[in-house]
Amino acid sequence: MTGLGACRTGQARTPSPPAPGSLDPGGNPVSTIVAPVSRTLPARRVAAPVPVDPAPAGRGPLDVLGVPGQVNLDYAATAPCARAAADAVAELLPWYGSVHRGAGALSRRCTLAYERARQRVGDFLGVRPDDHVIFTRNTTDALNLLARALPSGGKVVTFASEHHANLLPWPVDTVRLPVPGSADAAVRAVDAALRELRRGTDGSAPILVAVTGASNVTGECWPVADLARAAHRHGARFALDAAQLAPHAEVDITALGVDYVAVSGHKLYAPFGVGVLAGRADWLDAAPPYLVGGGATRTVGAATHDVGWADGPGRHEAGTPNLLGAVALAAVCEALTSVDRAALHAREQALLAHLRAGIAAAPDVVELRTFGPDSPRVGIVSFVVAGRDSAQVAAELAGRWQIGLRDGLFCAHPLARRLLAEAAVRSGRADLPPTALRASIGLGSTTQQVDRLLSALATPR
Ligand SMILES: Cc1ncc(COP(=O)(O)O)c(C=O)c1O
């Protein structure tokens, strides 16, 4: 099953609050300290911090590192580091040597580790045999690279709901489609836009449709395979921003039928500073190098412009690469490949449903959404507390409850502003703040952590 399929099957439902003494979906005891939250909560509650359980144990390489007592509900910004990543880095550190630049044993080992990492990440993403897997710094870097590789005269189609990383790198004449009201409407909008762009042409101009797999604001999943099919019907290509989808569900380029995929290591339980652009080789090999310098060249002559650029990933990876980042990311990819991802997904969906149910019941809290309330989504929820400044709420959650989450417009200003306006209409509240809060969960998240947030939201100031 592809990531989208998994996303589709995992619809959030509204469960009953857990009974005291019961187990959460990961088999951890559900906190009995926090009472189920409802709109009719008594006026006074104990504000003392609730003890937080450790991350669920027993998954070995996919245990996440963290600081005891700190509740990380900000996985969508940066996920904690998985043990697999930390171990891979620790193992390689004594072998520290140059990559692609030395004949010594250390250097050869590092070069091999780097190229193996490329292979493993490519396998994880289900690349086709002739696709390139290019290491970048992050998703932003990957999408900027793809923008630079657009053939001349190429057009881009995207949605106003995208993260800035998938809005801003594209040419100024990019078609930015309005935020659709449903997954089906998104597919229809792409179809209509491409028909319009192709009208009166011979259909050969390059067009790229670039869309996210899961929204960083709402967690909602986009109909990736259907969008890619719509693009291909019109002879266009499809780029998937999988920064938020890949940490939660399988992303397989071949199965989804997409042409390019971009991910960030730091959202995939690996360290900062590594990302990937994977996909069709032809545009990438024809484009000027994204970075110029050592490693991107085949030959350099005496004259300034006498340069033969390399083909393949090296063309866009000038300079000494981020070996440890690549190896750490590959280790996480391997660990994720060898576990039952459907089970992980189901566990996360149950926790997400608990979080959303609690948020829906908390006083004055309004959730943000683009599609219907039951549309498939990954472990991300954005919301506002009516009458409260979101930055102040976030600061209070951090200071008083040791809960880390995100506030603001989440680098998706057009979407976040629109959803805030819609939330005001839907809730009938005139006192919604101009920015939002976002809670996001993943591998190390527990019911107790979610309950702590719900308890904090239910506690009067
Ligand atoms: C959907 C989406 N795309 C792209 C990005 C950019 O990722 P990075 O900051 O790792 O480049 C993010 C980051 O939050 C994101 O959520």
UniProtKB/TrEMBL annotation:
Region (Disordered): 1-33
Domain Aminotransferase class V: 71-453
KW Transferase (keyword) present: yes
Record's catalysed reaction(s): (sulfur carrier)-H + L-cysteine = (sulfur carrier)-SH + L-alanine
UniProt superkingdom: Bacteria
Record has Transferase as a keyword: yes
InterPro entries documented for this protein: Aminotrans_V_dom, Aminotrans_V_PyrdxlP_BS, PyrdxlP-dep_Trfase, PyrdxlP-dep_Trfase_major, PyrdxlP-dep_Trfase_small
Keywords: Aminotransferase, Pyridoxal phosphate, Transferase
Family: Belongs to the class-V pyridoxal-phosphate-dependent aminotransferase family. Csd subfamily.
Protein name: Aminotransferase class V-fold PLP-dependent enzyme
Organism: Plantactinospora alkalitolerans
